[in-house]
Input
Amino acid sequence: MEIGLTHYLFISAILFSLGLYGIITRKHAIMVLMGLELVLNAANINFIAFARFGGMNIEGHIAAIFVIILAAAEAAVALAIVLNIYQNFRHVNIDEVDNLKG
Amino acid sequence: MMDTSHITADLIKSMGMFLPETTLIVTFLLTMIFDMVSKKSKQIAFYTAMVGLIITGIFLFQQTGLSYKGFANLLVIDSYGQFFKFIILISSILVIIFSYFSDELQSAHSKLGEYYTLIIGMTFGMFLLVGSSNLIMIYVSIEIMSISSYILAGYTKEVKRASEASLKYVIFGAVSSGIMIYGISILFGLTGSLNLFEINQFLSSNKVDTLPLLLGGLMILSGFGYKISAVPFHFWTPDVYEGAPITITAYLSVASKAAGFAVMMRYFKTAFYGPIIGSADAWNLLGNIDWHYVIAVLAVLTMTLGNLGALWQDNMKRMLAYSSIAHAGYLLMAVSVMNDNGVSAVLIYFFFYMLMNLGAFFVVQLISNKLKSENSEDYSGLGYRSPVLAVCLVVFLISLTGLPPTAGFIGKLYVFTAVLKSGYVWLAIVGVLNSVVSLYYYVKVIRNMYLRDVDSKESKLVYSPVTIAIVLMLAIPTLLFGMFFTPIVDWANYSAHIFLGN
Output
């Protein structure tokens, strides 16, 4: 069987859904951030697959590189914020960080 | 060997048009360096940032009347972008001035170098976002501004609620930008390009499947919706606005919303605008999807939930957060008509919204400096304890409600006119009803200030003449523009034409 564009799109759709599922169901802040990485990498697979099979220009590859860089920057900031939450709350359970509401 | 001379020529020409942004980058670096080098002066970063922003303003002013696609169609420089850049720049300057007078920032930190640096960085991101005409460029600029704002929201990091605010902000922000980039990848696969102009060409000459286009479009819309805090992407807004330092709350509610609206309208007009058939008024949208209704529904939801949420709030910051959601709803109403009238209504509304919202937040900040409270119950008797501030707050709140003779009334008038002209009568009725609801929670604060504790024994609140002058500088234009609004309206009408490069 020839591996084609559809297979890659399926993989990326599954990855996206798993990532979103993880973000919604997990309580631990780090796990939520991991779900987020899955979502971003699903987009990366899409970009690369379209660029490879769609006969499109280099834009897709470049887009994927940008996403990787920004994901790293975002993860760095997010981890620093989670660390700060740990110092203030002594845990990183998102459900229990709920002083603000109303 | 490829001939690269025309690319080089384009780059050199573009760099000349990139002066405001270049100035911001230089300011960004200088603020950081001066703050590290100077041991004595506590406020050196403040002065550097102010000077840098003012020079940026001069360069920005020089771009009046330009229309240019630069950097291989990555950025567009036009008068539409210039209008929004001015709004962003003015609010950055004002927020930096507010920070100078903020007790919660100044007492907690010996130095505020990184704080000002990050505000400049955020301004830079928003400048790019306003001009972006490429989907990756939009994503990158949204991330530039978001990453700075995540840190700023939790800048007072030993305060519990600030760290909670920044956690909620970073998670919601990262998820919605993740969904947005997935939508971008779908749109890329569908049209074969990331450039909005090329997407437009592809859509007008080929037939595309409706379902993926709708899916990708909605996912991209969720990224914009999060920036402008439209329902259903608004969940972060009240918590972040309440937890973040007041100055940052004010900044998020005006500048980052302005950038979000700017890029949203540019995206719709540039990518989905088709050749005009029949009436020249409305933009003819490509691709068989009625984005009018999608956005009109968002607008109704946003207004209604924002106003209903604000009814129960005692905390001023939280109340203003819900009110800013409601205002995003009114603005979305004007976006949903998708014609140049709507765009110019958004521009007019935004200019006035900037004045009144920043003013209201500054008064709240000054009062919380003295009272150490943001609860509107504690505002009782304030009309007698601090007459000038209270009168100014009344002006801002009346203007936010949209009653004459304030600027907010003119803004709402133009929005409703644009909606009615396009025949969306039901939308205008929902908007008016919502304005009536909003009167309740704004007037509640005024009642607390003037009708409670009339013979209060509490001492008067004393403010320095400079702070009073700044409040008046925002309050007097809010009143004046309610009567003499023609210059702003003319400017907005001139700027309402988004450059399409032909």
User: Anything to note?
Assistant: Residues 22 and 84 of chain A are 22 Å apart (CA to CA). The two ends of chain A are 56 Å apart (CA to CA).
